[in-house]
Protein 1
Amino acid sequence: MSENVVLQVEGLCFAYPECGVLNQWSVALPAGLALVRGDESSGKTTLLRLLAGELTALAGRITLQGVRLSDAPKAFAQMVFWVDPRAGDLDKLTASGWLDSLPAHYPLWDAAALATHIEGFTLHEHLDKPFYALSTGSKRKVLMAGALASGAPLTLIDEPVGGLDKPSATYLGRALAQVAGQPGRVVVVAHYEALPGVPWGTVVELNS
């Protein structure tokens, strides 16, 4: 793996019983922002779950900063931020309770960045609410504030603008641009189109 590659994926294969998704899929991502673009059912979320180690590939290798997922799953997991925005795992937690739990998991956690994102996403009034009481947009904003502040070498964000109002979508673009230059970190965003003004370093197309 060359020095500037943070995430190396080689020959990834995955299929559901009813359909194939990835066949010998490979990519090498340097530090910066990577967009995984594709239509509905093209496998964007499945790919993120594979990269997070939440799903197990049928074949292939995933290596993050020299750590191979199959060889050291715990060490690998400690370098990844991933929360499925559609899952209900966090429903009973308050937004602030969840955010307060994150620094213990992420050595590169940036408290100042979190404060900036809370302000930018106008989250103050929602912090004491449980996740189940949040709107789709507010829930995604909380998750993205945590993701961007985590400093995780591999940060995975799925369909970021779902339910977002225009000011929050505009702030998201600025926030992504700010993390684009962080060394040793790749932020992978899955979306059906490129977000305006975001300096994508890599764009990967998935075909359904």
Protein 2
Amino acid sequence: MRHLLDTRTLSRDDAILILDTAEDMAATQQREMKKLPTLRGKSVVNLFFEDSTRTRISFEAAAKRLSADVINFSAKGSSVSKGESLKDTAQTLQAIGADGVIIRHPASGAASRLASSGWIDAGVLNAGDGTHEHPTQALLDAFTMRRRLHGDASRGQSLDGVSVVIVGDIAHSRVARSNLWLLNALGAKVSLVAPETLLPFGVREWPVTLYHSLDDALATERPDVVMMLRIQTERMHAAFFPNEREYARNWGLDDARLARLTERAIVMHPGPMNRGLEISSGAADSPRSTVLEQVANGVSVRMACLFLLLSGERPQSERTEG
């Protein structure tokens, strides 16, 4: 695997390989000594042009547990704030010998541009580009679904027949897009729920079922997974719904809706959560919720991605069968 830029072009076999490699990585994290020598001598740069807490820390932890040298780059306080271009930044990283670059950028397509530009020889991993994609978030979500729904038998499993309902700000969500493509590749049935104003242009051409009513979607689909999305007010420059109270009443996962879910159903959220808006505290903190599991699983999934990106093969000698 040379780069990881999106899930739309990720094959079913490659997706399962990443998820299974993440199982190997998760097994090593149960040991007293969590650090592996796998990427010793490799340099990984966290190139973040947008603010981030979970993703940046998760990638840093993943790289360090693989013994890579980590360089954290923030656009704030760097030459980017003085007008330096992505090309000049990339060439600087090339000059210092970066082996891998993890990039988060507000412009859709920035990761692909970096990977195809010829400015840098490093492997490129997309940590979120504009409203385009966030592939490792989708992979950690799928990893969490497999573990919750298949338990100890999750290794090698797809998500064939699993019903996933994704609710909320679809228009501005790169997480929704990456999940859609990955879940379809893994055989899941995906439904989207949002007010018309929060659906992106062209959504009716996507392989999904659309709903404007959360209650209708829950009753019709009887989902195995309900994924709530954050309302991204920082990307909104107009009024997309009348007020927060109306949004919570119509599209929020409250305690009453939580109680109507099937016994098997789980609740997911990529974080950070707006409690009381898209999700109630009761739902966020319930045994059905996988929010903290998603954060923990993110380290194992990102370890797997970095391993496959920078070494190109599976860690046979380090595998621990689960």
Protein 3
Amino acid sequence: MSHHNTNTAADDNSFHPLGQLGWNSRVEAAFETVAPGSEHALYPARVTEARRGSVGLRMPQHETAKLSPRVRKAAEADHSTAPTSGDWVAVRRSGDAWLVEAVLDRAGTLVRQGVAKDSHDQVLAANIDAVLICEAADQGPNVGRLERFLSLAWASGATPVVAVTKAELAGDRLPEVVELVETVTTGADVHTVSAHTGLGLAELAARLRPGSTWVLLGTSGAGKSSLLNALAGDTVMDTGEIRDDRRGRHTTTHRQLIPMPGGALFLDIPGVRRIDVPGDGSGVDRTFADIGELAERCRFRDCSHGAEPGCAVNAAVDEGELDTRRLERWYRLRREAEWNRSRGDARLRAERRKEWKRNDRVGREAARLKRGF
């Protein structure tokens, strides 16, 4: 099986004080755009976990920092700008405390579409190189959910990798489960693993290159904690009990950054219950690249894949090359992405209107004061 390179940060920073945290030339350049213009002495640090009004840091020692008023105000206006696990930040000393003065430019950002009334997006993890999606062999697989996770991962700019976990519990169904997973993972590698027996762990561990940052993604009960402990060769995460309905209990309630023995880093986030695909549509396009390639062969460029003659998509369905259910899921996620994009645009328009009104009030007040009444 061919593998994609999941170590996008190829710099040799093993001797840098922050090298063990993923420091590279891109991060250094981002820091240098912020530090020289500050009136305070700034230091780079990486966020290990996000808390309400503060963050946990490594620099490389463990620290806690509060958000500066400017960073806090920006986060209140747009939640997606708040420091999150994996972020690189510039901090300064303020008395006995550290303050986050700036969040450095991000790369490889896992963003979940906003679901609240304000439609603000939620940044789940930042500065990631790869996304390890866990799908339990004994629970499905749920291909619709897997396609949503893949859409989320592809849109992040990181490389998705799928782990079919708990292989020992699938019994004779394992080949069928893996084959079904592979039918919906266009462009992403699939590893069959078992934290209990050790199956597939060495091959997966070989991909965890020093300096690379991975994020674990999957529902509760998918075996994320057990897999990470097995890869680490130690207990780095608590594992939860399995309920009577075979779903796991949530063992992760906050985001955290976990260093691995070989030098890779893992970001673990709470089990994601609701997966709304990003509005830009790029993740959906990558996830369903097979259908996109078929659509390119349609006779008409604006083919809607309905009753038009020469539709390559419908021909593939008729010939049994494309599952009708996968085509239906493609339609559904494309519509969802378009809807989410429109919601985001509406929020931006509303925020601009508020800003214009605020500026107009300020302008009128300034003119009144100038006139002296």
Protein 4
Amino acid sequence: MNPAETLVLIVEDEPAIAELVRFSLRDDSWTFCHASTVNEAWDIIQQQQPQLVLLDWMLRNESGLRLLTRIRAESTLHDMPVILLTGRTLDEDWSVAMEHGADDYITKPFSPRELAIRARSALRRRGETQSARPLQVGPLALDPRSCTVRVGAEAVEVRQAEYRLLKFLLCHPEEVFSRAQLLDQVWHANGTLDERTVDVHVLRLRKALRDAKSLLKTVRGFGYKLTAG
């Protein structure tokens, strides 16, 4: 991606923090726009289609999750990376953010270097999704471009957090991953969350997959894998 073509939307109602975000990403020569409310941010998204959104959860008058919900409800915005920047640090806050469709979750105060690395990573994953072919194991198929999941000819509804887990496992069929590896590779939790969080998402994913739930195997003492066998 040409840095000159990368527009980053900062949704933050604290001017000092918005400026810190710009400073953190300055070496990438990206272009920035700023919004302090959900409505202002939505107008910018509709008009300019930024390549990355850095979103404060706790805006003064509205939750940033409201904007995230609107973004994920639009089929044309499914692959727009959204990173939440927030002072909320509880495990359940992270889970709520992932279920609403956040691509990453960074707590305040944040390291400028870490923010830059994770912003570049989110953009790289977006590029991979746009060029990716459908993934399939047995009757289970996922199309990254349309964000759809099918079991045979039947479409199934999978929530955002479980969709990420499924996509990762479909990219690595027959490979066993520990809970810690999944937290790191799928949700970039960096060891900050209880590994039982993974068990919750596996349980929800199996329920969503119905007849194909047997493809998601528990490997006792190690973790989980997706297999056609």
